[in-house]
From TrEMBL:
Listed name of the protein: Serine acetyltransferase
NCBIfam families linked to this entry: cysE, EPS_EpsC
Compartment annotation: Cytoplasm
Native organism: marine sediment metagenome
Pfam families linked: Hexapep (PF00132)
């Protein structure tokens, strides 16, 4: 357990350049406290001590602003930056090296007692305010742009943005570190409009050529 805690602290330094010292990380990073408490509540949940697990998860929410259901399965080196408003549902499964920002919701779309929440792969980055709904799969190394609403599966190494989220392109992950250059995310709607402009321009030229051939003005 101690090794995991040290790994979590190192993860904060890797992902957040604002982190200056160990005491600052221990005292000022609610995401770190939330994941430590979740490991306790998840252990209790798996041991069928579920009421106590739920109570502790609500204590966790009160002190950190982050709500993680005790049943959620979360991998190593999970980093929540800022954290306020994050909600992770009961049947969510999150891989290793995942980074999420404030306001992210991994929610369900069914009242049935079955798999209702997303499965998130390894090395995924989920931007602030994003909502991922239903038992979908987000592939390894995917990026979800801020304020996106994801309703369908996301392929590995793919960036999605928008409401509903649409594929904006592919990217490469270097040195197994998350790509945090959110300002470089492409806009799929703009790309479509740019393509339409090119096609309209070509059509106008063809129409002008036909008019010239037929003697029309």
């Amino acid at each position: 357990m101690f090794k995991r805690m040290v790994e979590d602290i190192r993860t904060v330094f890797e992902r957040d350049p604002a982190a200056k010292g160990y005491f600052e990380v221990l005292l000022c990073y609610p995401g770190l406290k939330a994941i430590w408490m979740h490991r306790t509540t998840n252990y209790l949940w798996r041991k069928k001590i579920r009421l106590f697990a739920r109570v502790l998860s609500q204590v966790n929410r009160f002190f950190t602003g982050i709500e993680i259901h005790p049943g959620a399965v979360i991998g190593k080196k999970f980093f929540i930056d800022h954290g306020s408003g994050v909600v992770i549902g009961e049947t969510a499964e999150i891989g290793d090296d995942v980074t999420i920002y404030q306001g992210v919701v991994i929610g369900g779309v069914s009242s049935e007692k079955k798999k209702r929440h997303a499965t998130i792969g390894n090395e995924v980055v989920i931007g602030a305010g994003s909502i991922i709904l239903g038992p979908i799969t987000v592939g390894d190394c995917a990026k979800i742009g801020a304020n996106s609403v994801v309703l369908k599966n996301v392929k590995a190494y793919t960036t999605v943005v928008g409401i509903p989220a649409r594929e904006a392109g592919k990217h490469i992950v270097k040195d197994h570190l998350p790509d945090l250059d959110h300002q470089k995310i492409m806009d799929p709607v703009k790309n479509i409009l740019d393509e339409l402009k090119v096609k309209i321009s070509q059509l106008e030229k063809e129409i002008a050529a036909l008019k010239k051939m037929s003697g029309l003005k």
